[in-house]
Write a structure and sequence with these properties.
Blueprint (H helix, E strand, L loop, with lengths): L1 H26 L5 H30 L3 H27 L8 H25 L1
Helix pairs in contact: 1-2, 2-3, 3-4
Membrane topology: Multi-pass membrane protein
Family: Belongs to the UPF0382 family.
GO cellular component, one term: plasma membrane
């Protein structure tokens, strides 16, 4: 899982920076201020959770188990659903895509919960 999560972290980090630059330079005259802010929210959450995936990759090397794996999978799915839906919403103007966003947020919450539970179990075992 170490390699897989590191690759995902690198991919989401790279694309997060690229999308942020694209929005700042290529979309600033094409999208409303409101849609630019929404796009920026997607980029911010993508980059934060790319770093979280990096942390999960490091943890997976030292703390094998399903909770750490589920955290990484949940973060990756969360990025795709949360950030992806915000990108699509702003670029297409299809407001109904916003219904997907909370499912991505739920993915983020599940990921953080799994990390917390993995930490709790470590302390309890020590």
């Amino acid at each position: 899982m170490l390699r897989g999560f590191l690759l995902l972290a690198a991919f989401f980090g790279f694309t997060g920076v690229a999308l942020g630059a694209f929005a700042a330079h290529g979309l600033k005259d094409r999208l409303s201020a409101e849609y630019l802010a929404i796009f920026h929210t997607g980029v911010t959450y993508q980059l934060v959770h790319a770093l979280a995936l990096f942390g999960v990759a490091l943890l997976a090397a030292h703390i094998p188990g399903r909770l750490v794996t589920w955290a990484g999978v949940s973060f990756a799915v969360g990025i795709m659903l949360f950030s992806g839906s915000l990108y699509l919403l702003t670029l297409t103007g299809i407001g109904k895509l916003g219904i997907i966003t909370p499912f991505g947020g739920l993915g983020f919450l599940v990921g953080w919960f799994c990390l917390g539970l993995a930490a709790w179990r470590l302390q309890a075992a020590a």
